[in-house]
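Standup notes
- DV: blocked on the single-chain target, sequence here:
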Amino acid sequence: MLATMGYITPEITGKLPGFLSPSAGLKFADIPNGLGAISKVPAAGWAQIAAYMAFCEVSQDQSPGTLAAAGDFGFKVLTSSDPAEKEKKLSAEIANGRLSMMAIIGMFFQDGLTGSAWGDWALYTASPLR
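- DV (later): unblocked, structure below
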């Protein structure tokens, strides 16, 4: 779901002001949306992303027998203490997660064929339907 929103948000709200990499003179506005961004972000930026992901994984005690191991971090705003209500909300979350996975794959596919996250299919001249 975060990937889908991350793909859409820069198109709607615009990009952050300032520099992504001041030493390289690379501004956030210089980074294209979609798959084109992968090759534009410096290696140090990818290293920072990987380091933050690793921090998130190891900062919580998820040893067997803990609530965190079961994915329960005590945050009940979106879930419920009532088992029936919790099951209903978790089922909805799974359905929404599956929908967003299909959405991001569709956006990747469109971006790969047309060169734009919001691709103009008129630019896709290799279509077998033409």
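- Follow-up: The mean pLDDT is 84.
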